[in-house]
Amino acid sequence: MQQNIESASDNKYLLKLIKNYKTPSLGSSLWQIANTLLPYIGLWILMIYAIQISYWLVIPLAAIAAAFTARLFIIFHDCGHGAFFKSKLANDAVGIVLGVLTFTPYHRWHHAHLIHHRTAGNLDKRGIGDVWTLTVDEFNALSKKRQRWYRVYRNPIIMFLIGAPLMFLISNRFTRKDFSRKERISVYVTNLGLLALVGGLSLLIGFKTFLLIQLPITYLASAGGVFLFYVQHQFPDVHWYRDEEWDYSTVAITGASYLKLPRVLQWFSGNIGFHHIHHLSSKIPNYKLERCHNENKPFQQVVPVKLVDSFYTLKLRLWDEQRQQLVSFSEAGV
Question: Hey, which residues does 134 pair with through a beta bridge?
């Protein structure tokens, strides 16, 4: 299926369509925090009591808490884009707090994420804030050892079930030489916040109990969240371009998916399945994305990726520049 939108190259037309959806609503933002954070806290309290009866009662509750964690991350994400509140101070304050709850340094993550928005779908500017993807020619040019490493990295078990939790639990705790001062401070502040949170809860319920509750929540939320991000830019009809052909508005529509999820999953994922609209304007609050899609026919012309289709994307590994599509290793003949 080919994604197309008649006015995809008409920047002014597309940007005009989204203009009226960019202003956040204070009431909607506060309500979203309340209907996400309060249930999350309630589930934590419930799990503290449930673990005293049986750990098997904790697991399903942790799965639900993981879904709420993903929704908290969407609010954190919107704050970084300056889309959740009109006030930058409010966005940053809420974002930093939610960064602690989601194990993610606020300024560090958003620095990489904003680069992702400026380079998504650009074959000449890959490598920051995206999923490592090689072209067929690049893969063939690698040594056998490097090819094996790439195959390991692109294995869904490694990427989602091992790599994703390690990224949130461990990788996010450290700085690198190329980090700016602001990014380093962001990591330190988040780590201090986590130390206070973990220490405080451990004094109340015990460190072991804390781990038995928090680890499955973080594991499930990170695996699901990274899979969601993956499908948003790795799907059969995605279009990527070389730098000279790259255009922000066109790539927003053809390089980001419209992931059509069941209503309950759409709610927990904060409408981020309307990713084509989000990439067209990251200033649109998540709670206005669906309305923007439903009220404007050009966005509805984008062929949706359904949940069942998203699992097909797991076999896609390389970008074939001749076919202009993502392909599996077998389709690439490697």
Answer: 318
Within 13 Å of residue 273, how many CA atoms lie on the same side as its CB? Answer: 21
Letter for the amino acid at 224?
Answer: G
* Residue ranges with strand state E in 33-168: 134-135
The DSSP code for 93 is: H
Cα(235)–Cα(119) distance, rounded to whole angstroms?
17
Q: Where are the domains of the chain?
A: 11-332
The whole-angstrom separation of Cα 65 and Cα 49 is: 15
Task: Specify the DSSP element, H or E, that contains 119.
Answer: helix 106-119
- Please say whether the beta carbons of 226 and 103 come within 8 A: no
CB 258 within 8 Å of CB 303: yes
Look at residues 79, 84, 81, 78 and name the one whose alpha carbon lies nearest to residue 31: 84
Could you read off the pLDDT of 95-144 as tens digits, one per residue?
A: 999 999 999 999 999 999 999 999 999 999 988 888 999 999 999 999 99
Q: Structure tokens of 276?
A: 């084509």
- Note the pLDDT tens digit of each residue in 277-307: 999 999 999 999 999 999 998 888 888 999 8
C-alpha span between 187 and 112 (Å, rounded):
13
Strand partners, 238: none
Token pair listed for 157: 């078990």
